[in-house]
Each structure stands twice: as C-alpha cells, then as structure tokens.
Design brief:
Elements: E1 9-18, E2 24-32, E3 38-44, H1 49-63, E4 68-71, H2 75-78, H3 80-89, E5 92-95, H4 105-117, H5 127-143, H6 155-169
Parallel strand pairs: 1-4, 4-5
Antiparallel strand pairs: 1-2, 2-3
C-alpha cells in the first residue's frame, strides 16, 4: 500500500533507549506516510498492546482514522488488543514480512533520525525529562526541519500546502 493523500496510511514502530542511570524506556513512533509528519511519540518504561491501542484512539480522535497502519510483527501490534481495536475501527493492520524491516522503511528511517538527532544527543534524567526532550524534537522535526522527499518543505508546511490545494480544488 502506498499513501496518496494525508492520513491514509500511517506507520508505527518502537525505539528503545535508557535514562542516565541505565533504566530502559521505549518510544512508540507514529508517522503519516504521505506528509511524513510524526503524529505522536509515546514514551514510557513499558508499552504493551493496550498502550498502543490507547495512543491510536487518541490520534484517531484528533485526526480521523487512517485506512491502514504499517506495523511489524511485534506482540504489541499482532496481539488481540490491537487486532480488536483495528477491527472495531475499520483500520487494516498491514504487517511487515518477517525479517524485512524495509516493508516499513519510512518509519525505520524516521526512527534512525530520532536516534541520531535526539536520543544520541541527550542525557535523559527522568522519564518526564525524556518525554519533554523528545516532544521538543518532534516539534522541530515537524515544523522546522525541511525534508528532501518533500521538496525541502517541513512536514507541517507540506501538510498545510496539500490541504490548501485540496480545498482550492473542491467544488
């Protein structure tokens, strides 16, 4: 599946890191495949299927639902909780083939940028500190950082431009 409009196809995955004292935390990243916007980054010590479903419910309430979400075969995505959420919301979960992270290349690339530009650049003193720094980087990524794939526009600019073009073409 290839996205042809905003909010049609999302991708999500996890990134792990650690606080300064070695305690691990995970981040759930969600990206719109068309606009390249990072829709959300949920940071917590433990993220299970219930947390993923809750995050998806919040995003759908804010943006509307996508037709599909690209995910890997992790238990948080392939378990009963997400299966039920997807069924009840009419959203297809598009699973990667095992051992092929390139099936969700946009999110893998995004996670690499998150790692390089944020996670590797900061010491996180607490979970709240990690949430704050990661949220600030997400705003930078969406609003200030131009992307070559978007003709050197930011994801927010691209989304606004696409929205205004779509609105100007409406009858």
């Amino acid at each position: 599946m290839v996205a042809t409009i905003p909010n049609e196809l999302w991708g999500m995955d996890f990134v792990s890191d650690a606080l300064f004292d070695g305690r691990r935390f995970r981040s759930l990243t969600v990206v719109d495949h068309f606009t390249h916007e990072c829709l959300d980054i949920v940071v917590d010590q433990s993220l299970r299927g219930e947390h993923v479903a809750e995050a998806m419910a919040r995003l759908v309430a804010q943006r509307g639902k996508p037709a599909a979400i690209k995910v890997d075969n992790g238990s948080e995505f392939a378990g009963k909780v997400m299966d039920r959420w997807a069924y009840e919301n009419g959203v297809e979960l598009d699973f990667s083939r095992r051992g092929t992270p390139t099936d969700n290349a946009l999110v893998e690339s995004f996670n690499g940028r998150l790692r390089q530009e944020c996670l590797n650049e900061h010491w996180f003193l607490s979970l709240e500190d990690a949430r704050s720094k990661i949220a600030a980087w997400r705003r930078f990524y969406n609003e200030d950082r131009p992307h070559s794939a978007l003709a050197w526009k930011t994801p927010a600019e691209f989304a606004r431009e696409y929205g205004s073009q779509a609105n100007s073409q409406a009858p």
